[in-house]
Amino acid sequence: MTAIIGAGAFGTALAAALSVQQPVTLWGRSLPKGRTTPRLPGVVLPDAVTLTTDLATALEGQTHVILALPAQALRDFLAVEGLRLDGRGRWLVNTAKGIDLTTGESPSSLIRAACPAALIATLTGPSFAADIARGLPTALTLASGDAGLPALQHALSTPTLRLYRSDDLRGAELGGALKNVIAIAAGVAIGAGFGDSARAALITRGFAEMSRLSTALGARADTLAGLSGLGDLVLTSTSELSRNFRFGRALGAGEGFDASVTVEGAATARAVRGLAAAKGIAMPVAEAVAALAEGRADVAETLETLMSRPLKEE
């Protein structure tokens, strides 16, 4: 059995996908009536999914707990519920793709600090909740430095949800977080009318930034070139289903954006500034995204500056 903490689109989608071969308990502070949710139109949760607003009920007897919470909400949730989540031999699997804005810590670091007895993993990679919920083929990275990862890989895989395991937890998390920043930049380029060629250039240079910072922070280059890095970057920077891309496009076009929609890349861009400065790494794309998200920069001038940086060897 698996418990999923967080009944947003991604948590609900995972519940639907995993329930084809095991009972799943889905927890949320509030749950929609019936077995449908407006977050995933047309998706009906199977009877194998138990819905509950009681966290103790959701966690009872569970050895696999998936934390499907936004990156900027995770720290506060752990401060309140960390003791309940903790347990020797229990897997806590993070799905958040971000960096905590207050502490600069990764999700797994926050979980480890709050739940020292648990086993920690991250599930990340190129995916949209709607595809997972509908059983469309999806490949993700399951990363952990703890023993027992192959068993967890098999427990959370389904015929349509294929998980590739990695022991580079740091790299998998950084890839998932940083790609959101670059996806915003890609959206800005399209929204401002700079075109697909400019978007491709920003994706390419953004990936170089992702790789420089991640390897400086201890990640492996091959992890960034895999599903959790390049794969997720390509999907998030090119699809209208990507919230980060849509947010960037709205910025580029000078349009408003629904404040209730979680855009992980906006906060991550701000957090990245401190990490990059500490390592002495130049990240002009990430810095531009942070400035635009904070309203400190003009879109046209920012993009022109990025596209006219000094000529040098690639």
What does this structure look like?
The chain has an 8-stranded mixed beta sheet, with helices on both faces. The relative contact order is 0.11. It is of the alpha/beta class and 314 residues long. Helix 3 (71-85) runs parallel beside helix 4. The model has no long low-confidence stretch (mean pLDDT 94). The protein is 50% helix and 12% strand. It folds into 2 domains: 2-167, Rossmann fold (3-Layer(aba) Sandwich), CATH 3.40.50.720; 170-308, N-(1-d-carboxylethyl)-l-norvaline Dehydrogenase, domain 2. It catalyses: sn-glycerol 3-phosphate + NAD(+) = dihydroxyacetone phosphate + NADH + H(+); sn-glycerol 3-phosphate + NADP(+) = dihydroxyacetone phosphate + NADPH + H(+). It comes from Paracoccus aurantiacus. Substrate binds at residues 97, 243-244. NAD(+) binds at residues 6-11, 129, 243. Belongs to the NAD-dependent glycerol-3-phosphate dehydrogenase family.
Essential attributes:
314 residues, alpha/beta, 2 domains, N-(1-d-carboxylethyl)-l-norvaline Dehydrogenase, domain 2, Rossmann fold, single chain, eight-stranded mixed sheet, 12% strand
Euclidean distance between termini CA atoms: 49 Å
Sheet having the most strands: 8 strands, mixed
Considering the protein shown, what is the CATH homologous superfamily of the largest domain?
NAD(P)-binding Rossmann-like Domain
CATH architecture of the largest domain: 3-Layer(aba) Sandwich
Low-confidence stretches: none
Number of strands: 8
Query: How many H/I helices?
Result: 14
Overall pLDDT: 94
- Helix amount, in percent? 40-55%
Structure class:
alpha/beta
Shape: globular
What is the strand content?
A: 5-15%
- Whole-number tally of structural domains: 2
What CATH calls the topology of the largest domain is Rossmann fold
Function: Catalyzes the reduction of the glycolytic intermediate dihydroxyacetone phosphate (DHAP) to sn-glycerol 3-phosphate (G3P), the key precursor for phospholipid synthesis.
Pfam families: NAD_Gly3P_dh_C (PF07479), NAD_Gly3P_dh_N (PF01210)
Binding site for substrate: 97, 243-244
Family: Belongs to the NAD-dependent glycerol-3-phosphate dehydrogenase family.
